[in-house]
Amino acid sequence: MIHLPDLQTPAALVDDAVLRRNARDMARKARSLGVRLRPHVKTHKCIEAARIQVEDAFGGITVSTLAEARHFARQGFRDITYAVPIAPRRLPEALELAEQLENLNLLVDSPIAVRAAEDAAAARSQHLSIFLKVDCGYHRAGVDPRDPASIELARTLVEAPHLGLRGVLSHGGHSYDCRNREEILVVAEQERRETVAFAETLRREGIPVPEVSIGSTPTMAVAEDLSGGLQGITEVRPGNYLFFDLFQASIGSCSLEDVALTVLTTVVGCYPERGTLVVDAGALALSKDPGAVHLGTPVLFGRLTLAEGGAVLPELELISLSQEHGKIQCSEQAARRFPVGTRLRILPNHACMVAAHFPEIHLVREERVAETWKPARGW
Ligand SMILES: Cc1ncc(COP(=O)(O)O)c(C=O)c1O
């Protein structure tokens, strides 16, 4: 077993106990709310992590690229939702994958995509399972649930001989603009209400809607506080919750103790006279995600702890990143405490972006690497 001091830096570490607690908590929450958990695996893109996420769930997962879908399909995952609107030219790839799975769900939100999906499926005499993506207020993607054209699109879908309407799907990503749990609660209720209302509108029009799928990590963090629970919802798709990060902690989705992913780094430059340190984790390790800037706090690219973990060292401020350098501002005395060669850990702003930069993710149990995971890469 590798001990942490033997790892080269920068390295992505995941705390086994925290990760398993996060997985269990979300599975319990979904069960108690009466919905199926179809976790998003884009946060880590690792088979082993996904297996932990589905231990207490039905086994379905959500992915954000077809490369992830293929990776997970090869390792026995049979029920996958590709939760990004499909690019028409990628339909042949998706159809090939669908043949190998029990169930592959694709997303569309336009008449062009519906036509392309029908034509591509017809050309191979296959059937495709489709979610109609709904905009529940985030305004990133999805049909307007109040526009009559959205009902017509659903009708075109159910009438297409080679397509099946699996259900409606939305993502309350505007929960990331919230400042606290009270604000997230409002978005969570909007996400639920808008998606369920659209499903009911379609049903009144005679269009069957088997699945009503929602979910983000912040909205799931408050779901148990919703007065009506997740009434009308059949499945939820949070992903970030497995790792959590500083962003989630700053808006109230979790506490700092719930953050499972950290980056091990080494001090490679120490400049007490100007009150700075340089670490070997730059933008290619941490991403340039500035964190919850809408809270009005100064931009920091992560918070530091000692290499063995513990409390955040507030005197060390990670103020800027270039490709392979992270620059820390601190007092002269603080800089002298962390000479070149000192190892530190960084709690990142955005775990999904950080994990996506590393070729390996190390699962850490009692200061030792218990497993090393290889994430899927590419699109
Ligand atoms: C469509 C969709 N569903 C679910 C999720 C998971 O949300 P979170 O990352 O907040 O856990 C995302 C994340 O971007 C998403 O795009």
Fold and architecture overview:
The chain is α/β, with parallel strands linked by helices and 379 residues long. The chain has helices at residues 16-33, 47-54, 66-74, 91-100, 111-123, 148-159, 181-204, 217-221, 246-251, 283-286, 332-337, 351-355, and strands at residues 2-3, 11-15, 36-37, 61-63, 79-85, 103-108, 128-133, 163-169, 211-214, 235-236, 261-271, 276-279, 303-306, 317-321, 326-329, 343-347, 361-365, 368-373. The strands form two sheets. Strands 1, 2, 11, 12, 13, 14, 15, 16, 17 and 18 form a ten-stranded mixed sheet that branches. Strand 17 (361-365) and strand 18 (368-373) form a beta hairpin. Helix 3 packs parallel to helix 4 (91-100). The longest helix is centred in the middle third of the chain and has 24 residues, at 181-204. The radius of gyration is 22 Å and the shape is elongated. Residues 40, 62, 83, 171, 173, 215-217, 237-241 line the site of pyridoxal-5'-phosphate.
First-to-last CA distance: 33 Å
Instruction: List the total number of helices.
Output: 12
Low-pLDDT residue spans: none
Q: What is the radius of gyration computed over CA atoms, rounded to a whole number of angstroms?
A: 22 Å
Name the structural class: alpha/beta
What would you call the quaternary organization?
A: single chain
Shape type: elongated
Q: What is the overall pLDDT average?
A: 97
Named once each, the bound ligands are: pyridoxal-5'-phosphate
Overall number of strands: 18
Q: N-to-C SSE series?
A: EEHEHEHEHEHEHEHEHEHEEHEEEHEHEE
Strand % is 15-25%
Instruction: Report the biggest beta sheet as strand number plus sense, adding barrel if it closes.
Output: 10 strands, mixed
